[in-house]
Specification:
The chain is an alpha/beta fold. The chain contains ten helices and ten strands. A ten-stranded mixed sheet has the order 3-2-1-4-5-10-9-6-7-8, sandwiched between helices. The longest helix is centred in the first third of the chain and has 27 residues. About 5% of the residues have low confidence.
């Protein structure tokens, strides 16, 4: 099992390296087609200017965004020279409110979207990730600064809680799990009276084995304030190259206000994360 269509999104040259390089590496390794979406965003706010100024501001913002897009197009064409893989580029300049709808239409036929991890240098990254997860309903592989795509034959850590989001992430990550030397099923403080109380992670381990992966199950205690921090610490101890996790088991508002596994992983991960809903 491999990914056949991988996508990535470029909004800025300075923030393009991690996501683009990882997408190229994965597409080449898995003989997948790579779709590269060059998107520049006009953030002009309406209804905040005197009569007549709004149209002028919007026109100026659109011209600036289009010039930035043309610069990105040229940079990408040069960057892809010599790459031996199937790839295509699509370019667009969109108003901020239209971005989510645009990405939903374009990405829904992709198997995986590869992006830089949010909360780094790219102010658009968080918006892009949420549009992919919620509007396009596509799994996202996020690459922190200084990291590359996970290698075949490495160690993958899965956060497992028997939830729908976690199961979706495992299914989305199957090509990477099948490549891994070990797929570590990490269960943090399972409920004493849950459905899997007699064999935590047993059904998931069987599922992975039947798909050709090599699972290992670990039940550990929650030693930090958030599950995400515990997963990160476990990944460091194991030398895992990738963390697989369900995204936003709680509402996004609750995660933003009170924190949670998704928020802590997105803010602090020092290795690639694959998330899905």
């Amino acid at each position: 099992m491999t990914y056949k269509i991988i996508a990535t999104i470029l909004t800025d040259i300075a923030a393009a390296t991690q996501g683009l390089d990882a997408a190229i590496a994965l597409a080449g390794r898995m003989d997948a087609h790579l779709d590269i979406y060059v998107v520049t965003i006009s953030h002009t706010e309406t209804n905040n200017y005197y009569i007549g100024a709004e149209a002028l501001m919007m026109a100026e913002q659109t011209r600036s965004a289009m010039a930035q897009r043309e610069k990105l197009d040229r940079w990408l064409t040069d960057r892809m020279q010599g790459e031996v893989l199937s790839w295509a580029m699509q370019s667009a300049t969109v108003q901020g409110p239209a971005l989510t709808g645009y990405l939903a239409r374009k990405l829904r036929f992709s198997d995986l979207v590869v992006l830089p991890r949010p909360y780094q240098d790219n102010p658009e990254a968080e918006l892009l990730v949420e549009a992919c997860l919620f509007a396009a309903e596509r799994p996202v592989l996020m690459i922190p600064k200084g990291c590359t795509a996970p290698d075949a034959g490495g160690h993958v850590l899965m956060g497992w809680n028997d939830g729908a989001e976690a199961l979706s992430a495992v299914r989305a990550a199957m090509p990477l799990l099948q490549e891994a030397q070990t797929a570590d099923i990490c269960i943090i403080d399972p409920p004493a009276h849950g459905a899997e109380r007699s064999d935590p992670g047993g059904a998931m381990a069987q599922y992975l084995m039947r798909h050709g992966a090599r699972p290992d199950v670990a039940v550990i205690a929650k030693t930090g304030p958030h599950v995400g921090e515990v997963l990160l610490e476990r990944a460091r101890d194991l030398g895992a190259q990738l963390i697989v996790s369900g995204a936003y088991g709680h509402s996004r508002l609750r995660e933003a206000v009170f924190g949670g596994a998704t928020r802590s992983l997105l803010e602090m991960a020092d290795r690639p994360i694959l998330m899905s809903r």
